[in-house]
Specification:
single chain, 329 residues, alpha+beta, Arc Repressor Mutant, subunit A, 2 domains, 26% strand
Length: 329
Amino acid sequence: MTITICEQAISDLQQEIEITAQIDPYDPLDVTWNYPSTLGQGYTRCIELRQGLELEIFQARLCDRLKIACPARPDGLRYHFHLLGQHQDKHTMVGDREFALYGSGLSPQEINEGPEQTALEVSVYVQPETLVSFIGDASGQLPRHLQHLIRPVEQEIYTRVAKLTPMIEGILWQIVRCNHRGMLKRMYLEAKALELVSLVLEQESEIQRGRQAVKPLNVGTLERIHYAKTLLLLDVRQPPSLPALAQQAKLNEYSLKRGFKQVFGTTVYGYLHDYRLEQARQLLELRQMSVAEVIAAVGLGDRQHFAATFRKKFGISPRDCLMGRGRST
């Protein structure tokens, strides 16, 4: 079943959510709201760390596929991390153990869609002036390789999706598991939030420097590359061939391969293989399918090769993952 929420329904749900607000007795700027029971079970926790810097933790079990109609709106910078779960919007498809960087500017009118799932997400919201206060120069300008992150309110925002690095994932778990209280908690979480921002910005700066030597993709080609990724993941058990994928995305094979490498940093089937492994890990952790069933579900037929690549990627065997050994919780 799919639930579609329009703008008016969002307003109605917001009123329902506000009633459930629970304020941390040690910190009035740390507020938790229950997730609407009609959509699932869970919570959203928002902590204002300082003016222009906010941390949000979202954890929920979504009972149905959810589509939310989001109006166009001006937005600040957002660093959105998935420890578990996935969602798709106009320009991004963020999967398990991935993150999205959203610059400031105009967030377009779009449909934000997520499947029935268990989600654990951490977001850091930063206002442009706050970012400038940390890393701007004496004239109030960001470093040249980061200036594209702050755009006028009438210009559509910059977006980029990438895999979580082990360092970023470790910091996210430290945030989720933080048991400090009061001022010590605020100092700890602000330091961790800024550490996340600095790691993402360092990565972004390196990418932008590298792109100077590469001819940038035009908007139309970029959209077709993202569409090709969506097509590729529609059925991971029987993905299209490269010629078929290129034809469906209205690209030639060379442009598809070159564009995929430029946008996602890997080959078409390298991306698919990583995605299959991530999906396999999530299915194993649910402990509702055998290893053989998981292999079949994600389209990885060679059990021996699957076990070797799974261990190399996650540092644990598929069977140990199924049994809950060595799992991060």
